[in-house]
Amino acid sequence: MNLGRVTGTLVASQKEPSLEGLPLLIVRTLSANGEPSGGYVVAVDSVGAGVGEVVLYASGSSARQTEVTRDKPCDAVIMAIVDQWDLDGETVYTK
């Protein structure tokens, strides 16, 4: 699992039929201390996340393990919206 912040949405008018109806969001990877680290990923949203929210996402074959993405051609899925995280006894993020 990876931490990320939803930074945008993606609309594709033509796509694989098995992806019809699945929302696609753009997620920027975050480090454990909440700073942007690395790049962006397009992820299927399985939990109703919105722009600006911090999320947990899975990539690779793990992305096809949710009820929403099972047997679908996706490489990343948002599977949780983060309410809070702590690091070394200090709160890094609170929604």
How many separate helices?
0
Q: What is the CATH architecture assignment?
A: Beta Barrel
The major β-sheet equals:
5 strands, mixed, barrel
CATH class: Mainly Beta
Which features does this protein show?
95 residues, mainly beta, OB fold (Dihydrolipoamide Acetyltransferase, E2P), five-stranded mixed β-barrel, two-stranded antiparallel ribbon, 49% strand, elongated
Structure description:
The chain has 95 residues and is an all-beta fold. It has one domain: EutN/Ccml (OB fold (Dihydrolipoamide Acetyltransferase, E2P)), CATH 2.40.50. It is 0% helix and 49% strand. It contains no helices and 7 strands. The strands form 2 sheets. Strands 1-2-3-5-4 form a 5-stranded mixed β-barrel. A two-stranded antiparallel sheet has the order 6-7. The two termini are 19 Å apart.
What topology does this entry show?
Layout: E1 2-10, E2 24-30, E3 36-45, E4 54-59, E5 76-81, E6 84-87, E7 90-94
Parallel strand pairs: 3-5
Antiparallel strand pairs: 1-2, 1-4, 2-3, 4-5, 6-7
Provide a compact summary of the structure:
This protein is mostly beta strands and about 100 residues long. It has no helices and 7 strands.
